[in-house]
Amino acid sequence: MRTLPALVLTVVIALRTCGAAEIWLLDNTRKIAGHNVVLEGTPRVTEMEGARVAVFDGVKDGMFIDSIPFAGAKQYTIEILFRPSEGGPTEQRFVHAQDAHGWRALLETRLNGKGGWWLDTFICTNDNGTGVTLVDRERVHPTDRWYWAALRFDGTTMAHFVNGKKEIEREARFEPFANGSISLGVRQNKVYWFKGAIREVRFHREALPDDKLQRVK
After folding, report:
1. Domain layout of the chain by residue ranges
2. Of the residues 47, 147, 167, 168, which has the fewest C-beta atoms closer than 10 A?
3. Which CATH class is domain 15-209?
């Protein structure tokens, strides 16, 4: 397992700007980018492998942030550094963006109960609830390790990645998101809780090339 690099951390959930990216560091549970974090349950912040991370119990822990950094963008990439734990629910929605129209984008895990998980992603920008789902149940990864997952839309294609490796893609057409909110650790209607840790989330208002995606080796 790769050790995360030690970082100089602030006393809030930090925001950094890196090119076109907005970067959220989950090193406490109070604020992110100047916005209040609304808590569900008691997600806790702890030090793990050289960095402070937010830990979710898979039962009642979630964070809600009143911001969608890629709102209005015609292309975007969402990256997240996370560690899914064994023993959580079979289905977990650990990133959920939902705008004022009810349009949504989700990154989810599916656990097989045998020490493995696979990525499931979804985007919908219409009023009838039909969207595009990406899932490949053959792409199984061990739990209790750190991963970068990414969801990318380039204007014509939706794709998702684990540690910089493309797992699946489909042609798709989506409208830009309006302003809204993002939940971490749970779907916004407070079901499908995530068990594990989240270190960092990055939002890009562009479709990052494959070789620019973050990865844990």
Report:
1. 15-209
2. 47
3. mainly beta
